[in-house]
Specification:
245 residues
């Protein structure tokens, strides 16, 4: 009987050890958007996004707005964006603005993300429950809570106010939920798979992925709205203001 007890104890210890999650990967550092390109490893580039399928009552206005933007751009008079008017990008667009990098700063109970474009700051609170959707004060970034599932950081974000354009400038309601699955796909290459679910506006969730490449030694540059050299003329056209540094 003593032998059986020892065997059972060893098996229990081995089972418990197997259930201990691995140390989470280190995302610390500055990450630049990675677009891939000719000759790039397809595993490193972001996979194609799913289509945007809006409910009919939202689709018509969205399509008309996109056509107006395309027509204005073709004339060389793009419609001014919120960023030109010093309005934050907010979630989820702040996670990828042109080629500007982001910096990830993990601490014990929080992961902070700072963007170089407009110095936006986002906080992900770790291993805490998400609040009921109606209890989160609407804001540009909402409330993000995260947890580790093995080597993947899973983030749940709610509470982004409806005036903040979503992915591809699509509209959204106050019921929008953003789920991210962030993981290393190779050394120094990071993917952020983003799924947007909005039962009011979307026929089905939209999923797309952002890819990043780590930039060792890079120091983030200050970029606030005063640095923005674009301006809007009296007709709504966007131009570049040339001035001395």
């Amino acid at each position: 009987m003593k032998g059986l007890a020892v065997v059972a104890l060893v098996m229990f210890a081995a089972s418990a050890h197997a259930q201990v999650p691995p140390s989470p990967p280190d995302f610390t550092g500055v990450w630049a958007p990675y677009r891939g390109g000719r000759g790039a490893d397809p595993k490193l580039a972001a996979p194609p996004a799913s289509p945007i399928v809006l409910k009919p009552e939202y689709a018509q206005a969205f399509d008309a707005k996109r056509k107006a933007e395309a027509d204005a751009a073709a004339k060389g008079e793009p419609i001014a964006s919120g960023a030109v008017a010093c309005v934050p990008y907010g979630m989820p667009r702040m996670m990828s603005v042109a080629l500007y990098p982001i910096e990830i700063l993990p601490t014990k109970n929080q992961i902070t993300i700072v963007t170089e474009a407009f110095s936006e700051v986002r906080r992900i609170y770790m291993n805490v429950p998400q609040q009921p959707m109606g209890d989160v004060p609407p804001g540009y970034y909402g409330r993000s809570v995260g947890r580790w599932e093995g080597d993947t950081l899973v983030v749940d974000t709610i509470g982004v106010k409806t005036t903040v354009p979503s992915y591809q400038n699509m509209p959204h309601s106050d019921r929008m939920r953003i789920t991210e699955r962030v993981r290393l796909v190779a050394t120094d290459y990071l993917h952020d798979q983003i799924t947007i679910d909005d039962p009011v506006v979307l026929e089905k969730p939209v999923t797309y992925t952002l890819a990043y490449r780590r930039m060792p030694g890079y120091e983030m540059v200050e970029f606030v709205c005063d640095n923005n050299r674009e301006y809007i003329d009296e007709k709504g056209g966007t131009h570049l203001r040339v001035r001395d540094r």
